[in-house]
Amino acid sequence: MSESHDPGVPGPGVDVPLFVQHVEEILDQALRELAAQPSILVALDFDGVLAPLVDDPAESRIVPAAVEALARLDALPGVHVALISGREATSLVSLAEVPVGTRIVGSHGAQRGHVGLSPNQLPELVTEPLALTDEQAALRAETLRETTDLAARYEGAWVETKPASVVVHSRQCTPEDAAALTDAVLAGPATRPGLRVQEGKSVVELAVVHATKGDAVAELRADVAPQAVLFAGDDVTDEDAFAVLEPQDVGIKVGGGTTAAGYRVADPEEMAAVLLRLLELREAV
């Protein structure tokens, strides 16, 4: 792109609706083609894609412009919205501020459900049951014991429990301690047979159910039967999803790092701009 052309999306701190027209030209063309399809699936990771990464996952908040964009996209005919996250699905629904009916895939694909309403008219997860075998439950319990012992040696480290996995978090550790803890986990409990090990940004997840975000995209595609899929992710675990995208799909990497995605934006603010641009294009169809 020459200097006379639109330089792309401005950085953080700029009001998203004001720069929705600044989506990079090559990505804008892909969004035009996506918006013209009769039926589309918009599948998104949460942390680092819709919400900036923070030290305490409970403090994560979705970018306001993304809330608006997803609500309006979901209301349009032929648009299906899904979240595919490493988070436990119930906590994801409590934070995400997405429309009722949004399909939810948590724990990197191990949990399935959708957003419903409680008797108090608050969003809640309507979940599909996840049952572990006795062997899987025992493996998860032993993995939790070992990882908890390791995390206790490093200030700032903690272990999260999910229905089918345990996750060692090191974002609040010093870089040296984070590296040492990760090495210890990979050399110790991660070597147990039957575990699927996934490294992410300052996390190592040890799962007893072998599911990936690629599996989740494939299953959502089969369920929804869209003509095209948009998937956006920021972490190495999202590469499984990018790998199963088809030529008519749009894969967007949020942030830095090597990726199989065809397009890239810098941060959740820019991703919100992309969603608003898709909304604009879809409303014109």
From TrEMBL:
One of its GO terms (biological process) is trehalose biosynthetic process. It holds the Pfam family Trehalose_PPase. Its cofactor is Mg(2+). It catalyses: alpha,alpha-trehalose 6-phosphate + H2O = alpha,alpha-trehalose + phosphate. Transmembrane segments: none annotated. Keywords: Hydrolase, Magnesium, Metal-binding. InterPro entries: HAD-like_sf, HAD_sf, OTSB-like, Trehalose_PPase. Removes the phosphate from trehalose 6-phosphate to produce free trehalose. PANTHER family: TREHALOSE 6-PHOSPHATE PHOSPHATASE (PTHR43768:SF3). Belongs to the trehalose phosphatase family. This is Trehalose 6-phosphate phosphatase. It comes from Georgenia satyanarayanai. The lineage of its organism: Bacteria, Bacillati, Actinomycetota, Actinomycetes, Micrococcales.
